[in-house]
C-alpha cells in the first residue's frame, strides 16, 4: 500500500510547526522513518492513522485522501496502529484482551474471532502465556500484544511508533525480526530514533528534521553520507573535534570513534562508516546554523 505525502503541514497553538511542508513517498514493504525526538515522526503517524488533522497538504494512502472523512474511514479499515504507549487492561489475560479488541473492530463471529486471536498469539510467540494477566507481562511482551491487536483485521498498512524503546536487547531483536517478517505484501512503517532498528530491518528509509524530509533513499545511501568523515583517534587529552560516536579506554589513552567534516588530527585513522555514522554525518550537514550573536 503506497503512501504519497505532499506539502504536509501541522501547526499547533502558538504557531509551532511539527510538520513543515513535508513531501514523502512510502512504497509497499518495510520502510524506516528516522529522526530525533521532536522531528515530527509521531505527528505524522497520528495523521496517517486518522487521529490528527493536518493544517495543510495532501496525504494519500492507497489512493485514499486521509484529509477527508471518507478517506480516513477507508484507510482505518485497512490500518493497524501500534502507538508509543500501548494501552492495555492489566487485569485481563492476553487472550481476553485480544478477544475484546477484536469485538471492537467488528469481528462478530465467535469461532472466527477466537481462531484469529489464537493465530496471532502464535505469530507473536505468546501462546504459552495467553492465560496470564497482562499486569504480569514484561514491556516486550506487552509490545507483542500490541502488535497482535494491530494485526487483528489483517491490515495492509501497519504503523509502529518507537516500538523497541525501553526494551532489553533480546526483546528488541525479537520484536524487529517479527516486524520484518510481517512486511511481505503489506506496508510496515517503522518510526524510531534508534538507528540500529532501521539498519537491521529496512532497505529504504527517510530522515525527518524539524518537520521536513532531509533524506530519502536506501540504507546503503545513508551510510555513504559518512564516507571520508569517520575517524579513529587515540589520545590522552580532550576529546577530538566532531561528533563522538564511542569512547573506549585503552592503555595508551582513550580511543574515540568520531564523525567529523575534516580529519580531527594528524594521527586520526579513517574508518569504514556504519548507518549510525551516516545518520550523524547527515545531521552535521543539515543542522540549522546557530544564530549569530
Overview of the molecule:
The protein is α/β, with parallel strands linked by helices and 293 residues long. The chain folds into two domains: 221 residues, P-loop containing nucleotide triphosphate hydrolases (Rossmann fold, 3-Layer(aba) Sandwich); 45 residues, no CATH class. It has nine helices and 14 strands. It has a six-stranded mixed β-sheet with strand order 6-7-8-3-9-10, sandwiched between helices. The chain has a four-stranded antiparallel β-sheet with strand order 2-1-4-5, with helices on one face. A hairpin with a 5-residue loop joins strand 1 and strand 2. Helix 3 packs across helix 4. The termini are far apart. The model has no long low-confidence stretch (mean pLDDT 90).
* CATH architecture descriptor name of the largest domain: 3-Layer(aba) Sandwich
CATH fold type of the largest domain: Rossmann fold
Q: Report on the biggest sheet.
A: 6 strands, mixed
Number of domains: 2
Q: State the helicity in percent bands.
A: 25-40%
CATH homology superfamily of the largest domain: P-loop containing nucleotide triphosphate hydrolases
Number of helical stretches of at least 4 residues? 9
Tell me which oligomeric state these chains represent: single chain
| Total E-strand runs | 14
